[in-house]
Amino acid sequence: MVTIFKELRIALEILRTHFAAAREIRSAFALQVVGMMINNIALVLVWIFFFEAFGEIQGWSSMEYVAMLGMSALAFGIAFTFMSGAEMLSEYVYNGTLDQFLLTPRPLYLRILSSCVRVSAIGDMFFGLILLAIYAVWSHASLLTMAMLLSSAVPAALLMSNIALATSLVSFFIPDAEFIAHNLFEVFLSPSLYPGGLFQGALRFVFVFIIPSLLVGGLPAEAAIANNGWLYLFIWAMAGAWTALTLVLLGRAVKRYESGNLTGARV
Amino acid sequence: MPNAIELQNLRKIFTFSVKNPRYSIWKNFFNPDRQEIVAVDSISLAVERGESVAFIGPNGAGKSTTIKMLAGILYPTSGTISVLGLNPQRERQRLSYNIGTVFGQRSQLVFNLPVRDSFRLFGKIYELSDRMIQQRQKELVALFAIEDIMDQPVRKLSLGQRMRAEIAVSLIHRPKIIFLDEPTIGLDIVAKRRLREVLKNLNRKFGTTIFLTSHDAGDIEALCARTIIINHGRAILDMETAVLQRKFLTQKRVRVDFSQPTKFTAIADTRLVHRDDNSVQFMVDTSKIALKDVLDELTTHYSIEDMDVEHPSLEEIISTIYGQQAR
Fold this sequence. Notes:
The complex is a heterodimer of chains A (267) and B (327).
Chain A: H1 2-24, H2 26-54, H3 62-82, H4 85-95, H5 98-102, H6 108-113, H7 120-138, H8 143-168, H9 178-189, H10 202-210, H11 218-225, H12 229-253
Helix pairs in contact in A: 2-3, 2-7, 3-7, 3-8, 3-11, 4-8, 8-9, 8-11, 8-12, 11-12
Chain B: E1 5-18, H1 25-30, E2 33-47, E3 52-56, H2 63-70, E4 78-83, H3 92-96, E5 99-103, H4 115-125, H5 130-144, H6 159-170, E6 177-181, H7 189-206, E7 209-214, H8 217-223, E8 226-231, E9 234-240, H9 241-248, E10 251-258, E11 270-275, E12 279-285, H10 291-301, E13 304-310, H11 314-326
Parallel strand pairs in B: 3-7, 3-8, 5-6, 6-7
Antiparallel strand pairs in B: 1-2, 1-4, 8-9, 10-12, 10-13, 11-12
């Protein structure tokens, strides 16, 4: 346990340096944060108009959607502000940057996750918190519901970063697989932006156990709104399982690493 | 105490798919032929602690692959590796506390921040206290003469300045071995000389084992007491650099530009390559005449605008070695 805290403290120290580096380019920093929030507002407005026009979907109205998107955006913000290196792994493998992470005395998993900061994800975090505040006020949500919604963002963020990392592992097997890894991650992420009510029966099983999109979207919102403790614990357990699986897969994949000497030539 | 480095029959094979013109586009895509490249072929060697070893060879000889296996980046196909008594693949994290690495073509410094921040970051990564980071930073800044660039963002540094900062940062945890992969690549002659001096001091002052790959024969002469030459993944020569110099680094090419039109008379025991009124090029065999005597004669009798002394290329050295082995 002491080791885990020590490693997390060092990972935070690395992130602190990356934040400082990102802040050096101030105008880009501010533009990215604000730009992402505007982008997200467009998405939530589309769905609010959709629910206004067509009514509920399997018990989901615009309020449930706001809660879900709030939690999901917060989770995305946490994942890609603090663990953005996961989505960079393909690039690291392709251009040989992974070398420098293997050369430091830190666990490779944490070293990769903490290797960069996606500034625009800070905008997602703020946007998520604003949406959750709107949900709390409009729906008079209980403290328990809000606590469950807010805390669900942690396992959801873990799931997002682990799946981003797991999909990037394809780069150890296929050269220049950034595009493939990105698309695989999109297959997971896109369904998480749809109301949970759309996923019923076999579809629900697929999107929980095979492509776990519902674990970072509809399911945490349903657990919080219904104050369903078992469902809430199930989401944490799945986040733990995916973390363990990603760690095992990373350990195996890195044995296939071939490094590289790609320099910055562009034609 | 175990040796700094011990390799036994180290091999690394890379495989990749190749297009076969006789196959259809589908077969080439889904079931292509595979080809193997033996990047490192049964290398066995031992390096004692405190040694400075040049591990040299032409492009594609297997230098970087070997260094990456020694540092725990790549897994060997077969053979055994021991660095400071540790297995780099199984005990990567433990080993990392004791080794430093510099790859000439890749930066580990934080690009947008001042050099000072990279010292702090790496100090934290190696679990040094703030006081220790300050103390080591002070020592290294003095050793590498980089005080004037400490507050400059890395992106604003020249290549020579960056390389000195890279090496200084990579020593923050005071490693027992430093692996340098082409540290002088792209540097001008002044920066190269300065870097070599610093590395020599490091070896002398702290007893740091230096394991250096280079494409530049000048690095070997200036820095390393021992030289291992590899070609096509095999170690073809392992000897003291002084002996290597006597046997294989005797040919120097001297180029001279005169400051006014000059009638040049060939110096005894040299071989003229090119001569006109403004410049001359000739080869000096240092086993027959000392380079210093040649330079003295030039500066005494001629008015010189510019002068350059070149080492033989590695390709030339290797072909000489093969030639001698064949005899």
